[in-house]
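Tutorial, part two.
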Amino acid sequence: MNQAGFAPLTHYLELPAALMQQRAAEFLAEVQRRRSVRQFSNRPVPREVIEDCLRAAGTAPSGANMQPWHFVVVETPGIKRQIREAADREELAFYQHRASPQWLADLAPLGTNASKPFLESAPCLIVVFAQLSGRTPQGEVRKHYYAVQSTGIAVGMLITAIHHAGLVCLPYTPSRMTFLNGILARPPQERPLVVLVTGYPAEDAVVPQIERKTLQQIASFI
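Running the prediction step on this input gives:
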């Protein structure tokens, strides 16, 4: 979706430095509360909330404005069951054969294993696909530039939007994900990147005690 032409930048609003600092600090405090959750309530989530979160993700920048993403929202119990059964098979192979001892050791503090019941218990799965190519309105096949990187940016914005709306989510990435194309009837030029397991946390939900890297560890100013 590459549209020619330019228009004046009318939506930018410059803020005083003090207000910028306040807003940045408030946003930091907001996102610091975000945690990946693995125990979900089965309470349904409002469809309108998910739709607005997806619209927010759709504002992400993308290579050549191709917007190379597709989001499949799965709420149907039978389809969630199919995804869970296929994922459990992949996870069993991963934990028994594919993962290195170091990988398993790194996962151990997080309490993960081959069983993924949240794929059924959560009310909503958002499966994110990166479209490696697409078609113009005239039917011409077009390569999508930086499709994976662009979709990754959209995923980050979607995770943040879900948190900001008052829900929780878990980014879930089985070691092999192509089974999602078959279950969800997506074409081969779409690559599944992540399943965002989304909903309300269970009343007894727990999260690992982790520490995040400091600013000095993640950034340099030169």
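The domain at 38-201 is CATH 3.40.109.10 (NADH Oxidase). In part three we will examine how such features are distributed along the chain.
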